[in-house]
Design brief:
about 200 residues; mainly alpha; 3-stranded antiparallel beta sheet; 7 helices
């Protein structure tokens, strides 16, 4: 059974749909992204749009705190970290699928219904128009929900359930070390290209 992540997923939808998305902000000279592809993981591309969607909550926070050149530098750093996080996410999803894992379609259906009810006062049309305004289809959003659930499930299975420390600070350190080791193992056998 998958862990409940509805509040995080609804937050993602709110940030994605209601936050400001600036496609070109923070790109310096020499950072023009050919065909919008920023990286490739085992033949699967990661686009600039995916990174923007992924980092939009952090970008919104940066806008509140920084301006000008400092904002541009910080935005560039979170974009690079966003690429690394998306690489990890794709590797985790790939590992889940290799193990034969499947997310029941009802999971994403329920998350979408909850988002429509909570964020759009039950108006599915408004939900669809909001997604379209940000260049995302319902199917793409459904896939993002499923991938987030997979990452949460696999992280729990590969990291959280293996932590043995009882003191919170020690638990956090042990979890970080286990996660790092697990991700290094996934990356070791992967073909990864970073294009920015």
């Amino acid at each position: 059974m998958l862990p409940s992540r509805s509040s995080r997923l609804i937050s993602r939808l709110g940030s994605l749909l209601l936050g400001a998305l600036s496609l070109g902000a923070g790109m310096g000279h020499g950072e023009t992204l050919t065909d919008g592809i920023t990286g490739v993981v085992n033949g699967e591309p990661i686009t600039f749009m995916e990174i923007n969607r992924f980092i939009s909550p952090k970008e919104d926070e940066l806008r509140k705190q920084f301006q000008g050149k400092e904002f541009e530098q910080k935005l560039k750093a979170i974009r690079r970290q966003g690429l690394e996080d998306l690489i990890d996410q794709k590797l985790i999803v790939e590992a889940f699928r290799r193990l034969g894992g499947v997310i029941p379609p009802e999971y994403a259906d329920q998350q979408i219904k909850e988002a429509i009810k909570t964020l759009f006062q039950g108006e599915e049309g408004l939900f669809r128009r909001s997604l379209a305004a940000y260049g995302e289809t319902v199917e793409e959003y459904r896939q993002a929900l499923e991938e987030q659930a997979i990452v949460a499930y696999m992280t729990k299975a590969q990291v959280d359930d293996k932590v043995t420390a009882t003191i919170p600070a020690d638990r956090e350190k042990e979890a970080q070390a286990l996660r790092q080791k697990w991700l290094e193992g996934l990356r070791k056998d992967a073909t990864i290209q970073r294009l920015f």
